[in-house]
Amino acid sequence: xSEDRDIEQDERLRDKIPIWTGYxxxxxxxxxxxxxxxxxxxxxxxxxxxxxxxxxxxxxAVGTIVLTFGLLLLYDKQARLQGIQAQTQRNQEQxxxxxxxxxxxxxVGFMNVTSVHFSIxxxxxxxxxxxxAEWSVAGQSRSWEIPRLAAGENHSFPIxxxxxxxxxxxxxxxxxxxxxxxxxxxxYSIECKDRFDEPLDFSGAVDFGVLIQRSNSDExxxxxxxxxxxxxxxxxxxxxxxxxxxxxxxxxxxxxxxRISQTNxxxxxxxxxxxxTVDQLNSLTNISESNIRYRLRALDSAGSxxxxxxxxxxxxxxxxxxxxLSEF
Length: 328
Hints:
three-stranded antiparallel β-sheet; 52% helix; Arc Repressor Mutant, subunit A; 328 residues; disordered C terminus; single chain; alpha+beta
């Protein structure tokens, strides 16, 4: 808020500078004119009495002064209106950002009677994008990424990941902390962006030890433990499926890019040498022969090259109709 106030004061000062400059010039001009008439200075020769022909230039000068003064007043009023409009726009932008700004917090919660997880919740009014949650356990940092977290939603993660194993049991986590001589306090930080692509960051700490003590009491269970266990496990399974789907999409994109690169490489070699066999292409590209035949048949169907299936020979056909590699 103080920065916005300083920016506003700077803008007002910049708007006042031309007006003050104009007033100063008019005052200096008026003072010079008075001193000329009184004979204190003699920069311009004035010989009284003044004739009728002398009033024209004087009236013109006075009119210019009056007109300049009026223009300065008009500019001052316009600058004030622009300042009010700019302030109104800034207030609207701040209000809009507050209405759609996410607010992320981290906590350790129970999945079931014996298992816990770390979860982040968006209690703000807008979705959070490119969320990166990082927390420190036993001197080591763990981080997870979420593409989007809508307002009112939460996302859960395992507290400790040891190799490929997720430690979710309170007993396993407590044993892990004892082995590493670590405290039960978990420091976390969360970074994200709002819908205006403005970066935000949140941080805090949770005490896992308090949660372990509470796990020995029945006061934390408002519902049947088995039912809550089933619900939490289902949620974890959904989160895992989402992660796997994202990984599969990335793998498919990589395989598709590899196919395009192989097809492009084979076509370029045939165009360069004019004629090559499948065996020669295998030596040049280190691509399997079956894959090379498949690419050659696709290029032949597209009209890029000519492939003789009986002799496994590909020849250049530069005048043929070429299609895009993405069609293969």
